[in-house]
Design brief:
The structure holds two protein chains of two kinds.
Chain A lengths: L2 H10 L6 E3 L6 E4 L1 H20 L2 H25 L3 E7 L2 E2 L3 E9 L6 E7 L6 E5 L4 E9 L4 E3 L4 E5 L6 E7 L5 E4 L9 H6 L15 E6 L11 H4 L6 E5 L7 E4 L8 H17 L4 E5 L2 E6 L2 H12 L16
Parallel strand pairs in A: 4-12, 15-16
Antiparallel strand pairs in A: 1-3, 2-11, 3-5, 5-8, 6-7, 6-10, 9-12, 10-11, 13-14, 16-17
Helix pairs in contact in A: 2-3, 6-7
Chain B lengths: L11 H15 L5 H17 L6 H22 L5 H17 L4 H21 L3 H22 L7 H25 L29 H6 L4 E7 L10 E7 L1 E2 L4 E2 L14 E11 L6 E2 L1 E2 L2 E2 L5 E3 L5 E3 L7 E11 L7 H6 L9 H13 L3 H14 L3 E2 L10 H9 L1 E2 L1 H14 L4 E8 L2 E3 L4 E5 L3 E9 L3 E5 L1 H5 L1 H5 L6 H4 L4 H6 L4 H21 L3 H10 L7 H26 L6 H16 L10 H11 L1 H19 L5 H13 L6
Parallel strand pairs in B: 12-13
Antiparallel strand pairs in B: 1-5, 1-16, 2-7, 2-14, 3-4, 5-11, 6-10, 8-11, 9-10, 14-17, 15-16, 17-18
The chains are: A alpha+beta, B alpha+beta.
């Protein structure tokens, strides 16, 4: 489908936040290449019926014409009123494929057969919705660059029942996922990692950090200390407090990686974060734009990676590939 | 078929199955080697189990292609026309199946499968053959849908039901187009296959033994439906070719037999009827003796025959009128008198001697006719389907030695006798009798009703029909061929059953009625029927433009109806049982004095009641949570529904 047509179509519809219902005006339909072949076959049959004045061949031709027409209705109604709900997407590393998850709802008493959802030319996900049923699809989206990935329109289409018609709808959601820098293959040796910390900083084993409790959030608290899980139940966030302030720390620092360009540095730092986490170190991240206080654990790792993903260069220029389209 | 180049995998079995069905459907009309080639290729594809094309396979396919095309060219000298064209289709169907690896290939096989059904109808439109054709079309549609089910979520049964439903939904549109699509008479271009061979039927010459072969054929010749009651059996002489030239053995038509005649006949006993004639690839149209006025596209000849302008290559329907009692040719011009008296020199000397004795005895022509008929009746002549071969002069040999013969023997020798006596006479071939079908109100005439009789020209009354066979075997004329007891053992079983009153006969007649209606309304639906139908609907002689408008209007109406139907079918509904359960909960609460607000959602309502009534809060919250999860989330299932129903049933809104 031509890009210009797609753009025109997308201007007609608002970008959805969470869900889209496929109303009549959202669904488009054209014959496929097979549809044209089928029409050609009908023409041959009709010609022979007329030539031989053969009523039965006329009958067959008209029946098959009716079949093709009804296939068009079937393809169209196969999408009609389907509700597409955006579930979410996990962050990925640049170069991987992000998987956006959707839930398709079938509000009618007839099943929906052979619905495929995909993004651009990547192989999509094909599903079947039982009567009044739902199914989840996970649609791969390529994430070549770090930053915030906001995929453009998704394509939801069907060619059921015969593949003669291609009925589709373009869906665009206001949604993003994080793309971390690709971790560089070359990992600095652990020793180098450690040396960047305080001179007396030794390795800190697991469980070094003693969780002592929660307190109300105060302005200035590090975001990574927020107890996110409690946020769902309360209006004000809580912040985790830790004992053992003297635990050994490792600093992963931007300045240590001079003579490299920005992206390579970020890749290196990303690898370091992963490695430090894997070795159960207590680590902090120091970037020209900000500092992530030392810590450990999955949430801490994510905070570091997020900082790397969203890092904007010294000149304040946009990170490459961020917020596409 | 998301990606048309996707490999077909094990679904090849389904594709191969319908390809084989298509080839088998056409097998009766194909040379054995063609069907064998196609089925062999299909079997080879199934057996080979290769998932992708191989060089060897490609070479094999192309060599078979060359062999197949060469063979068809060798037999037909062309690839155009019905016979060679359909042969080519069968060969291509087999070979395409052999190289089917992707969905795109399979799609081509599907299309060819549909075309085999159309091709089969080109050969045979009888109801009996339409049923297998329709079955193949249904099978092809099921496989078509099976390939289209990309989610592979439907069972074969569901796929079949989808296919059948789609076909059923196609019927209204098909009917509309069938009735209104403009029909043109005659072929648009000739493909040179009019001269079909081996079609059984009357021939335009008559020599001993010809008709008796026809008698053994149970094929229908034509059917005639009358507006009123049909003529009695002894008057059902269906006039076909009139033969006036005799060469000593064989009778031929004279040139008069194709000269048009324009004067209407006078007389009584006028009958109107419709005839549905099976194709016989000749020009004559059968009509009740004597036809008056030719249907459109036909002429009436000087010998009172109806001749179509074009050979009858398709089943043909026409209306005719006949006079049962009329005087034809009151004056016979000299040339035609001579034509109807001509005999080769020295023919039948013994018969000539017999005739001269009659001439002495009987002064009038009528007297001689009566004498000849009496001769056939009183001498030991036998009516038989298996007459002995005649040697020498066939008339003499039959009249004086063998005396065993069939209608062509009797009519031929009687006509020769008349000519020897100086009475103008000729042979008329056609059919006699036919069976009245009381279920369908028509007369059914089969090839076995073929007959030959004589006409003599008598001064003052013109041509008169004389049936010498009736003199020997009156039952033949009065009751039909199946009743002539001496013949019964020679006839196939069905003939004997035909004239009985048994249940078998009833069934056969019932089937024939359905088939007749089928032929009459569906198969014979052409330009004439279309016009008649439209006139009945109130359109006076509609032209192309009116037809096109009518068709467009009908299609628009139908499209609207179908659109509404499909939108109605797919409308968004809550799962009914779930809704019912929730309604029950609301009713319980309302009865207990806790009605929902007018715009209150399930969650808000539940939460409001729960926080106000701590006694039932836990139960109500559980129910509301489950209901919303099923209604708006993905939790809907039979089990959860059952659980929810139980919770609602046990829920007591007055609990403290």
């Amino acid at each position: 489908m031509s890009e210009r047509f797609a753009d025109w179509v997308m201007r007609r519809h608002e970008v959805a936040h969470r869900e889209i219902v496929l109303h009549r005006r959202r669904i488009y339909i054209v014959p496929t290449r097979f549809g044209f072949y089928y029409a050609a076959m009908l023409a041959v049959l009709l010609a022979s019926a007329m030539n031989y004045n053969n009523s039965m061949v006329f009958g067959l031709t008209f029946l098959l014409a009716g079949l093709g027409t009804n296939a068009m209705w079937y393809a169209h109604r196969n999408l009609l009123n389907v509700r597409v709900e955006y579930l979410g997407a996990h962050p990925v590393f640049a170069g991987e494929e992000a998987r956006f998850r959707f839930r398709l709802h079938n509000p009618s008493r007839l099943p929906r057969v052979g619905l495929t959802m995909r993004w651009r030319d990547l192989p999509g996900s094909t599903t079947y919705l039982p009567p009044s049923g739902v199914d989840d699809v996970s649609v791969p989206v390529s994430a070549p660059f770090r930053g915030r990935l906001r995929p453009d329109r998704f394509l939801l289409f069907t060619r059921f029942p015969f593949g003669l018609f291609h009925a589709w709808s373009w869906l665009e959601f206001d949604m993003t996922t994080l793309v971390y820098p690709a971790p560089s293959a070359q990992a600095p040796p652990p020793a180098a990692l450690r040396s960047t910390g305080k001179p007396d900083g030794g390795a800190s084993g697991p469980g070094q950090e003693d969780f002592s409790g929660l307190r109300e959030y105060r302005v200035g608290d590090s975001m990574r200390r927020v107890a996110w899980k409690t946020l769902a139940r309360r209006e004000a966030p809580l912040v985790k407090q830790y004992d053992g302030a003297g635990a050994p720390e490792v600093w992963l620092t931007w300045e240590d990686l001079q003579a490299l360009d920005t992206e390579t540095r970020l890749s290196r730092l990303c690898r370091m974060v992963l490695q430090a986490e894997e070795e159960h170190l207590r680590y902090g991240l120091r970037l020209p734009t900000g500092i992530v206080d030392p810590g450990a654990g999955e949430l801490h790792k994510r905070a570091c990676l997020e900082a790397l993903a969203l890092y904007r260069g010294d000149k304040g220029a946009d990170a490459p590939g961020a917020a596409r389209r | 078929m998301n990606d048309t180049r996707e490999r077909i995998g094990v679904r090849i079995h389904w594709v191969a199955a319908i390809a084989a069905l298509g080839a088998l459907l056409l097998a009766p009309h194909m040379k054995v080697w063609i069907t064998t080639l196609a089925l062999g290729a299909i079997a080879l594809r199934v057996a080979s189990r290769t998932a992708s094309p191989t060089l060897l396979g490609r070479i094999l396919t192309w060599s078979l292609m060359v062999v197949g095309t060469g063979g068809i060219l060798f037999e037909h000298h062309t690839l155009l026309g019905r016979g060679p064209g359909v042969s080519l289709l069968v060969v291509l169907l087999g070979l395409k199946t052999l190289e089917t690896f992707t969905f795109r290939d399979a799609f081509i096989v599907i299309m060819m499968g549909y075309m085999t059904v159309g091709a089969a109808f080109l050969f045979e439109q009888d109801l009996l053959y339409v049923i297998p054709g329709a079955a193949v079309a249904v099978a092809v549609t099921i496989v078509f849908l099976r390939l289209g089910d990309t989610s592979a979520a439907l069972s074969l049964r569901e796929q079949s039901s989808y296919a059948l439903r789609l076909l059923a939904l196609s019927v209204p549109l098909a009917l509309l187009l069938f009735v209104l699509f403009p029909r043109i008479s005659g072929p648009m271009w000739s493909l040179g296959d009019a001269a079909a061979s081996g079609v059984s039927g009357l021939s335009d010459t008559m020599s001993p033994g010809r008709i008796s072969q026809l008698i053994l054929s149970n094929e229908p010749a034509f059917r005639a439906s009358f507006e009123g009651s049909p003529p009695p059996r002894e008057l059902r002489y269906w006039r076909g070719p009139v033969l006036s030239r005799y060469d000593g053995r064989t009778w031929h038509p004279s040139w008069w037999a194709s000269i048009p005649r324009h004067e209407p006949l006078a007389g009584s006993g006028r009958l109107s009827y419709d005839i549905l004639l099976e194709p016989h690839h000749k020009q004559w149209l059968l009509a009740l003796d004597i036809p008056d006025r030719a249907p459109p596209g036909a002429i009436e000849t000087q010998t009172f025959q109806l001749l179509s302008i074009k050979p009858v290559t398709e089943r043909m329907r026409y209306s005719a009128e006949s006079l049962l009692d009329t005087e034809t040719d009151p004056q016979l011009p000299q040339r035609r008198r001579r034509l109807n008296l001509a005999l080769p020199p020295g023919v039948a000397p013994r018969a000539a001697a017999l005739v001269s004795s009659w001439r002495e005895q009987y002064p009038t022509a009528r007297g001689i006719v009566a004498a000849a008929l009496r001769h056939f009746r009183e001498e030991p002549f036998t009516y038989t389907l298996t007459p002995p071969a005649l040697s020498g002069d066939p008339v003499d040999d039959f009249l004086f030695s063998t005396r065993r013969g069939f209608c062509e023997h009797f009519s031929s020798s009687f006509t020769v006798l008349m000519r020897l006596a100086g009475i103008p006479a000729r042979v008329v071939t056609g059919y006699q009798g036919g069976e009245w079908n009381p279920i369908g109100n028509y007369i059914e005439v089969r090839q076995s009703d073929a007959h030959a009789w004589s006409e003599v020209w008598l001064e003052g009354s013109g041509w008169e029909r004389i049936d010498p066979t009736a003199a020997v075997s009156p039952e033949r004329v009065e009751l039909g061929i199946g009743s002539t007891t001496s013949l019964a053992s020679d006839l196939p079983f069905l003939f004997r059953a035909r004239y009985g009153a048994g249940i078998l006969n009833r069934l056969r007649q019932g089937w024939d009625t359905i088939n007749y209606q089928w032929q009459n309304w569906i198969v014979a639906y052409g330009p004439d029927r279309q016009m008649a139908m439209l006139e009945k609907l109130g359109f006076d002689n509609p032209g192309w433009r009116e037809l096109a408008w009518l068709m467009a209007l009908g299609m628009a109406l139908l499209a609207t109806l179908l659109t509404l139907f499909h939108f109605w079918r797919i409308r968004a509904v809550e799962p009914v049982p779930l809704k019912r359960v929730y309604v029950r909960l609301v009713r319980k609460l309302t009865t207990a004095g806790m009605p929902p607000g007018s715009s209150e959602g399930a969650l808000d309502f539940g939460e409001r009641i729960a926080s106000a009534n701590p006694g039932i809060a836990a139960d109500l919250r559980g129910i509301t949570e489950r209901y919303t999860a099923m209604r708006y989330g993905s939790a809907y299932s039979e089990e959860n529904l059952k659980d929810l129903r139980q919770r609602v049933r046990r829920f007591d809104p007055n609990a403290r």
